[in-house]
Amino acid sequence: MPVKLVQSTPSAYQYPLLIKQLLLTPLAIAPDQEICYQDKRRHSYRELRQRIGRLANCLTTLGVDAGDTVAVMDWDSHRYLDCYFAIPMMGAIIQTVNVRLNAEQILYSLNHAEADVLLVNSEFFPIVEAIAARLTTVKKLVLLNDEATEPELPAAISQALHYAGEYETLLAAADSDYPFADFDENAQATVFYTTGTTGNPKGVYFSHRQLVLHALGCAAALGGANGNGRLHREDVYMPLTPMFHVHAWGFPYIATMLGLKQVYPGRYQPDVLCRLIVSEGVTFSHCVPTILHMVLSHPHAKDLDLSGWKLIIGGSALPEAMAAAAFKRGIDLFTGYGMSETCPVLTLAHLSTTDMQGSPEEQAVLRAKTGLPLPLVDLRVVDADMNDVPHDGRATGEVIVRSPWLTQGYLKAPEASEDLWAGGYLHTSDIGNIDAAGYLKVTDRSKDVIKVGGEWTSSLQLEDIVAKHEAVQEVAVIGVADAKWGERPLALVVLKADYVGQVTEHAIRNYAAHAIEAAGVSRYGLLLQVSFVKHLLKTSVGKMNKLAMRANPQALRD
Amino acid sequence: MPVKLVQSTPSAYQYPLLIKQLLLTPLAIAPDQEICYQDKRRHSYRELRQRIGRLANCLTTLGVDAGDTVAVMDWDSHRYLDCYFAIPMMGAIIQTVNVRLNAEQILYSLNHAEADVLLVNSEFFPIVEAIAARLTTVKKLVLLNDEATEPELPAAISQALHYAGEYETLLAAADSDYPFADFDENAQATVFYTTGTTGNPKGVYFSHRQLVLHALGCAAALGGANGNGRLHREDVYMPLTPMFHVHAWGFPYIATMLGLKQVYPGRYQPDVLCRLIVSEGVTFSHCVPTILHMVLSHPHAKDLDLSGWKLIIGGSALPEAMAAAAFKRGIDLFTGYGMSETCPVLTLAHLSTTDMQGSPEEQAVLRAKTGLPLPLVDLRVVDADMNDVPHDGRATGEVIVRSPWLTQGYLKAPEASEDLWAGGYLHTSDIGNIDAAGYLKVTDRSKDVIKVGGEWTSSLQLEDIVAKHEAVQEVAVIGVADAKWGERPLALVVLKADYVGQVTEHAIRNYAAHAIEAAGVSRYGLLLQVSFVKHLLKTSVGKMNKLAMRANPQALRD
């Protein structure tokens, strides 16, 4: 189209959307605001800015240049926040390594991303020791250390890599001034690997522009809420989704842009988390259901005042029973939806003030919904021909999406990239529906959907029903092969300790069957079988690993 | 710098920031939300979307193509909102004509912008009649009509322009489907002319990208407030800065993106405004001090419950006395800062919850501050060499700025454009200071700053002091030539009717002198003289026209 482009006078500044620009406002309006690392250390935004300069100078000394990749293996720390800014601000790329992957997967991801330098917490020396000799591109290592003394470097590491020194020592010796130049906003800023349940991990990547727009879009949506889950400049932020996982959902960038007090808790230890929530006055976090479960079920959490703690749940569906339990504790929870490929946030499910007047039960249902699209998010639920399904809260289809912050492919994987983007929309592989009010509800990941008698049946709906039985600690519903129905649903149930031997599989099945009839769920739900198991299988980020459980459900009984 | 740009797989959608994308979320989450025009008409966002399609089809029929300019002369209406979207979404440019300019200035701006089609409210026929024969590029006219019957077209208009028909009639006959294509986000979307006090108006222009980023930045800042002035999705929006003036500060775009109920009040008639605030439940507006004064001093406003009405004041400094009066009425007011060249919003001055516990007097001072920079806004106060002045709340300098939403020049005025952007920062020509908490306070427009004894003296500070005298209705402080001091300050005072003849200039001067000494204001303030006048001179958008008042202050006495 012959549009007229705006003419810039030669002296005009053509503002690129760069991560460094997120620091402008906090430094202007909240320079003395605090950033804490557990109760080990705290410093101001002013100091953050100096640390960013020092780190950039250190990395330059190590030979890091624009376009290079610097990998980080750490728990959630103030150091990680330095890295979130300094590395991309130099024009380099930060690789956030998922430390819960196994050593071979980590090796694969470092070699595949062609990382040049590795910053590693000494806790992960055993992993690095096992892979150091096989690293093809990483040549240098910086130590991240929480101990009083510097740990000895294992020989396998010191033989394979140049040891550059300990992080804080290097920073202390470096100049805080660094001339962070402007460059193309489409420069790659980050890379990390998604935790597929089969095959090698896949690399996704995001640009400066995408991360800035994600921060703005999230802030606009989170601030627009009237009551439930509203983020504001007086909140205290603590991540509970690891910083190696989809940039901790982008919140370190958002919290910094808004100038919030930030609390980094290190490794997620329930007692530490409980302590920090109180001592630092944490008011805003985000996590997957598993982490919420871990916190709520910890003995220290029993007497904790969690009221008013705003909590976004995402990553997997929030069971209604867990929503109700958290709500009872006064947690102001709501859900978000997204995935590694989407930066990640696509929707948030704030309750309206009318919704918030509902009964606890009604609110639990609403708070477990997946949400309303953020500004600029074009989210559709479509059939196999990419036609929209009716927005009646029942018709299901695949969730496909466009937004300004989606990975533009998988790193060096052209076929998988084209599959992801078939038809010009990013395919989430999630199955869901949209109701008349515009709420998306994700009913299944397409890879664990159950097809009974040729019809899709929602495993999550059945899980919600079974989870409400008083004896049930955890449940996963999977599909198992069936001669008559193709597949039929099987509930793998972990009983609460008190109930082991006190309740039968048959009793749970009968309970579920009644509830299924009462709830008017698909009649195929009545084919549900129940199997008691010792534990469920989860992925490295705490999601149900249904693919693995499907492969051998019997094994879980032992 | 050799950064690595993100690679897009061929099928990936490279999301351009276009105005049409602002409609995605409201259509998904609030399709039935209302848009009202006075009490004459109301329709849903769903219908807004249809009207946008219809208008685009109408304009296409009239020969409007991408890159063409469509000028609008209307009061704030639902039609204007259609135009805000449909015209740029076609790839065309909307020229928002300042209907308060005189006919010659309007003629100049239409010819200078090379407008192709004119949409005009019949109220402005007298203006168009006077200039129709001299329009060099406008060939076609669409009538915007609020009357029951269609008014007759003056001969001077029908002879010069092709009459295309009445707006609603044309829309009703048009198809609502229109294929709004993607195009370059740097396409020009808008143009309008700034109301300079001398010389021809100057054209400023904004791209799709700039308007989208302005909407996101404002929403992020407005939502981040904790209490004072927070905008959320359950607010009801009504503009009180005209839609012809800097896109009504961008709020029609912001309100639409968030899916708010919107109320368009037509011409600003105090009785209508008062009625709409109550009947439609308006909770969020923005205006210049003059309009607030107009509303508050109207007899109908006396018994109106204005508590909780969130109101951004901008355009000129908010006198502390007016802030106190509004605060007493329960209005939740705060200030913003910006100008035509800046889209406009650069800062907002939300009070923190601590601030809000202050006394009414303390709050009035805080609420009259100009504010904290929005995300991505790089705002500096500099001396003549562009070095930053200390942030101590006292040192003053010129406010210069970078943000992703600044005009890239003045239309077809290369020299003025280079002056505006000298040194790569946009020069606001405003004088201000920044305090330790990061608050900008604009103390003077540099064109009306008073230089006494070689030192800048703040006319606004003196105005604040004089305005607090019980007899004073309005005051403007200007500089007048003085043999000894170069310039000395003169307060032009309009007395309240009850006080005329009851108080002397001398008494006001003595009152001010005491207050100046008590407040510790610059000793040059003591040189203040007072002159009673019948009225003050204002610009077409209601700002004090100090340049004109300086030219002949004596004339105002009559």
TrEMBL record, chains A, B:
InterPro entries: AMP-bd_C, AMP-bd_C_sf, AMP-binding_CS, AMP-dep_synth/lig_dom, ANL_N_sf. PROSITE patterns: AMP_BINDING (PS00455). One of its GO terms (molecular function) is ligase activity. Residues 31-411 form the AMP-dependent synthetase/ligase domain. The keyword Lipid metabolism applies. Keywords: Fatty acid metabolism, Ligase, Lipid metabolism. Residues 462-543 form the AMP-binding enzyme C-terminal domain. It comes from the Bacteria. Signal peptide: none annotated. Belongs to the ATP-dependent AMP-binding enzyme family. NCBIfam families: PRK06187.1. PANTHER family: ACYL-ACTIVATING ENZYME, BUTANOATE--COA LIGASE AAE1-RELATED. This is Fatty acid--CoA ligase. It comes from Rhodocyclus gracilis. The lineage of its organism: Bacteria, Pseudomonadati, Pseudomonadota, Betaproteobacteria, Rhodocyclales.
